[in-house]
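The records we work with from here on pair a chain with its fold. A complete example follows; check for yourself that the lines match position by position.
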Amino acid sequence: MARWLSMFEDTCRFPARENECLGWHEARITAALKTPGYVSARVYKIKQVRNGRGQFITLYEIDSDDIAATLALGDSRLAAESARNAEPDSLMMPLWTNVLWREIAAVPADMASRKTGNWVNLIEINCADPQREGEFNNWYHHTHLSDTVKTPGFLAARRYQAKTFVGGRADYLALYEIETDDIDRTIALRRASREKEKALGRYADSQLFLRVWEDVLAELILERNAVVQSSA
């Protein structure tokens, strides 16, 4: 069964009402996780908001061999929740909705525990040369992901491919789970490690890829897992 990541980004219109925004997110992910196929939901707050990105990122992990049908059902539940909890003054401002990615690699490979840290680092990237896409993916899957998770604080990595083209977004997404009390220091360690990888010839030719979004750092503020119904 394919594993998917559905990404939403939005912004609270009123800084003084962030607690209400968090409650709004919690109600939505609770409703969505009642949808068959939805595995987990996490809400993050971006460390440094950039033009074109939201203040909050919601990530839904979905297991489905018919993602269109699963999303349609999930969206109907979200729409019903929004109708029940509509804010007359439009509390939230959506920026990106249902940016959909299919998981294509994970390190550690089993990922049985689906490790989550208190931070994620999101990197969106394109292959610069379509004729070298196989080389690009081989380097990412078999060298780069493993090298990255050797960095202190990096727990695990997952890589995704976009289902369809979305203007302003990349073809590929890398998601790194990080556990740290000092995200700036951890990212500095990662950058230092990357320089060592370059010196060892383990980092790809800079002509091989184009970064669309780099080091979008976001801190976990809310996490829920789907309740597995007993068959008894």
